[in-house]
Write a structure and sequence with these properties.
Elements lengths: L9 E5 L1 E5 L4 E5 L5 H16 L13 E4 L14 E5 L1 E10 L2 E11 L5
Antiparallel strand pairs: 1-5, 2-3, 3-4, 6-7
Length: about 120
């Protein structure tokens, strides 16, 4: 299904850090998900729902996880602006254990305009 999804390559603006207390994750990313990335997430979601996959109801939030099981920080520093190139998306298996998370790339899907 993911092979059929088409989206242009784009950039992900890394501009601030945030802490999600409900799952104790410290992450960095954009203040708002870029329109191109939100569209890609919607198209993937539609394809998966048509194939009867159960998906989260929370809206997609573009981010880069830095720390899982993080303690709540007292304050988060301002970040320098980074335009991270996004020229593919991946299917990744996340294995969580007491030692931490391990990620295994199962497949890569290039975006249009990928060089």
């Amino acid at each position: 299904m993911a092979r059929a999804v088409r989206a242009p390559a784009h950039k992900l603006l890394i501009e601030h850090a945030e802490y999600w207390p409900h799952n104790r994750i410290l992450w960095v990313g954009p203040r708002r998900t870029p329109a191109t990335m939100a569209r890609l997430a919607r198209e993937l979601g539609k394809a998966l729902r048509r194939a009867d996959f159960a998906l989260e109801r929370r809206p997609f939030a573009a981010h880069v996880t830095l720390i899982r099981r993080a303690r709540a920080p007292r304050a988060l520093p301002p970040l320098p602006r980074v335009d991270w190139p996004v020229d593919e998306f991946l299917l990744v298996r996340s294995l969580l254990s007491r030692e931490g998370a391990q990620y295994r790339v199962l497949e890569r899907f290039p975006l249009q305009g990928h060089s």
